[in-house]
Each structure stands twice: as C-alpha cells, then as structure tokens.
Amino acid sequence: MKIAVVGTGYVGLVTGTCLAEVGIDVTCVDIDSEKIEGLKKGVMPIYEPGLEAKVIRNHEKGKLKFSTSLKESIKNSDVAFIAVGTPPDEDGSADLKYVLAVATEIGEHMNNYGVVVTKSTVPVGTAEKVRQAVQNALDRRGENIDFDIASNPEFLKEGAAIDDFMKPDRIVVGLDSDRAQEIMGKLYKPFIMNGHPLVFMDIPSAEMTKYAANAMLATRISFMNDIANLCERMGADVNAVRKGIGSDPRIGNKFLYSGIGYGGSCFPKDVKALIRTARENNYQMRILESVEDVNDDQKAVLFLKLTSSMGKDLSGKTFGLWGLSFKPNTDDMREAPSLVLIDKILEAGGEIIAYDPIASHEAKRILGDKITYVNEPYEALSESDAMLVVTEWDEFKVPDFNKISNLLKNKIIFDGRNLYDKKEMNELGYEYHCIG
After folding, report:
1. DSSP character string of 32-86
2. Shared domain check, 219 and 118
3. In the chain, what percentage of residues exceed pLDDT 70?
4. What burial class does residue 117 get, using C-beta atoms within 10 Å of its C-beta: 0-12 exposed, 13-18 middle, 19+ buried?
5. What CATH number does residue 324 fall under?
6. Is 216 part of any domain?
7. Which sequence positions are flagged as catalytic?
8. Which residue, 353, 231, 208, is CA-closest to 278?
9. Residue 252: inside a domain, yes or no?
C-alpha cells in the first residue's frame, strides 16, 4: 500500500512513522520546508519517547519519506490521511480551514481511487465538508475519479504515543462504503493481529467518539479536583478517597489523580469544541461547561496556596519551579498549568527559576526571558524562597530532601501533583502544601 500523511505535527508524524514501521510505504507531507528538511536529517519537531529512532530507521530503509509536495505524494496513493491542526477559534469552535484546504488540494491532484481520511480531531459533520471540498476540486478539473471518505480519530497519549499506536486499545474507523472498509481493514491488519479491536461505524459516530472520550477523561479530572478541594475543607485525604473509589470496577483508577488541572492540545480544545457544537444544535452541555470552569479555577489553586502562605505581594521572592510541560514525557506546553502559575507569580512581583528535563526550549519560545531556566533540578532551588512542583516527571518523585532543605531559604514545598507524603514532609520539618 502507498499512504500519504498530510501534516507532520504530533498526530501526523506518529501515524506515518508507525505505519512505516509495519512495512507500509508512507510519505509525510508538510508545507513547512524547514521541518521537512530537518526530518530528513533526523531532527524531530516534537519530543516523544521512541519516535526519533523509528523515524530515522524507516527513513533510511526508504519506507518513510518526507516531502513538501502534496501533488507528487498523493499520486497513486491508496489512502490520504489529513492530520493538520484544528486550532480553536475565539468562540471555542474548531478551525477547519487547514483541513479543508488539504481536502481541496487532494481533489486537485489525485489521479486514482483512494480513501481520504480525517485523522485530525474534527467536529461531527466535518467529513461531509471534506467530501464536498474534494468533489468540488475534481469537478473544477472535469475529472470523474471515485473516492471515499473516512473518519479515523486518534487516541494517542503524549508520552506513550508509539505504544498507543502499535498496541491500541481500539481502532475506530467511520466510513460508508464496503470498498473503504476493505482498504482500511487491510491497512490496520498488522495492528489487530494480537486481538486489538478494529471498530467500524458510521462517520458521524466516529467523529463524536473522539470528543466523547476526551470529554469523559476531562470530566474525571475535574471531578477529582473538585473532590480534592472539598476534602481539604473537610479534613479528608483525597489520596485515600481516590484509592477507595478507584477500586470499584465500575469506576476504575485511571484519571482519578487530583492536581492543578489538565492542559495539552486535546482536552481543553475538545471540551470547548463539544460545548460549541452543542450550542450550535440548541443544546447545553451543562456538565462539560462545569468541567471547563473547574479546570480553569484549578490552575490557580497552587498560586492561592502560595499567597496564603507567603502573602499577596511576592516582590523580592524567588521560587524554584520543577516542571513546565503540561504532563511528563512530552515537551508540549499548550494550555500548561505552569503558564498560569508563572504569569500570576510574575504579576505579584515574584521571580521564577525553572527546570524541566525536556520542555525548557518550548517554554523559552513562549515566555522568552521572563523566567530563568536551569539544566539541573536542584539548581532551581538554590536560594529560592520556596519550591513548586508542577509536572510529575519521574525524576521528581524521590528527591533528596536533605539537599533540598539546604538549598531553600525556607523549607516550604508547594506540590501541585501530590508526589510526596504529607506526614513524611511534616516529620522532615517542611511546610508542605498539596492538593486535597
């Protein structure tokens, strides 16, 4: 099979690389020539564990190619994945201009039957817009080329995307023709041989499945953050509560950790988009609107704890911050809680010295020189007035607390991810603030 993947962002690059890994001929296409030239040399535009080695190996084998020409890449392709960005508009709706532009260009250059697949997260009804854009382009050419449309939402967790693609919990494909089902079944056969389910459904249902999944996970996070805040007021331990309810098989223990809110490219954008879609169809997603409100408030919780302990005027105070990315094992800073916390501390007159094992370069692109970046975690704490834990990187989980106490001006830790045991911290003489 010959596959074209349009877009070399997180979804497109992981998709193209993993398909090449099982022997499929893949060309990843992007209009960013600098990014494409970098990929040809093994320079990754994103950080994802295991991705770089697979990109380099499959590119050297000739299974994974990179190009700026969709015109050449689409010729004789069996499947074309659209994996470009769908950034939220100001009203929260997904911006489809890049998706539809790619669909139009596919219609301008395709020369044989193929399946055009939306891989980007798109609202219900987008596939029909893609179908119309492709058909309009063909009509302008005066060509009568058959094609099918499919929706194949991704379910990749940043930091574990390779495993998620190679050993998926499920593969969801929405389509409306037997011919397209046969091709998509052949494409994904290597990934379902060990029993991983390939679920075919109608296109609108596939489009909705992605949003519903992310909205449910976001709901669990906001629910537990609400519970954590109530636990704190009632004298209960949210970690004990989490274990108690998580052991119920009807609930399970995933996404029940309290913290300082969710971020990243998926949950915030998809929750907003689903709320917007509902409004456009005269329906109010009351639970999701509350989920979003709780999350927005939760990103300020650590700052409120900080000012409650150290005063609202933070002039002359320096804070050592561990973790910048929205979650571990990624350099993604989109909607990261760290950005909210940093802005609030700077507005209050404080200074930040930050360490992150991967995301410092991305943070510097966003924040510039507003904060200080260091290359070692303990360096961030030297002469700081307090320590802030913002991202739950593994290397933060068992630190040297004696070393920390010798570096900090005050033995104060604000733990936004509940990494440490409150009793142990108190026994070590720390003023310890956690979530719940």
Report:
1. -HHHHHHHHTT--SS--TTHHHHHHHHHHHTSEEEES-HHHHHTT-SEEEE----
2. no
3. 99
4. buried
5. 3.40.50.720
6. yes
7. 266
8. 208
9. yes
Kindly report the pTM of this predicted structure.
Answer: 0.88
Into how many domains does the chain fold? 3
User: Which residue, among 7, 94, 123, 125, has the nearest Cα to 269 in the 3D structure?
Assistant: 94
Q: Rounded distance, CA 64 to CA 24, Å?
A: 8
Q: Is residue 308 in some structural domain?
A: yes
**pLDDT above 80 (res 41):** yes
Number of residues written out for the chain: 436
Q: What is the pLDDT of residues 336-364, one digit of tens each?
A: 999 999 999 999 999 999 999 999 999 99
Quick: pLDDT tens for 174-210. Answer: 999 999 999 999 999 999 987 889 999 999 999 999 9
- Residue 424 makes CB contacts below 8 A (sequence gap 6+) with none
Question: Which residue bears the tokens 């029940």?
Answer: 256
Best CA proximity match to 287, nearest among 276, 297, 299, 275? 275
* 409, 416 contact by CB (below 8 A): no
Give me the pLDDT at residue 91, please: 65
Query: Beta-carbon neighbour count of residue 358 at 10 Å?
Result: 18
Region 16-45: mean pLDDT is 97
- 379 in helix, strand or coil? helix
5 vs 68, 149, 185, CA distance in Å? 11, 15, 17
Lowest mean pLDDT among 54-63, 92-101, 307-316: 92-101
CA contacts within 13 A on the Cβ side of 105? 21
Centroid of chain to Cα 170:
18
pLDDT at residue 92, as a whole number: 66
Closest CA to 288 of 302, 273, 303, 266: 273
Residue 206: inside a domain: no
Short-list 240, 153, 262, CA closest to 204:
153
Q: Which domain holds residue 257?
A: 211-297
* In the predicted structure, residue 89 carries a pLDDT above the cut 70: no
Same domain, 175 and 266: no
Burial class (CB in 10 A: 0-12, 13-18, 19+), 146: exposed
15-26 average pLDDT score: 97
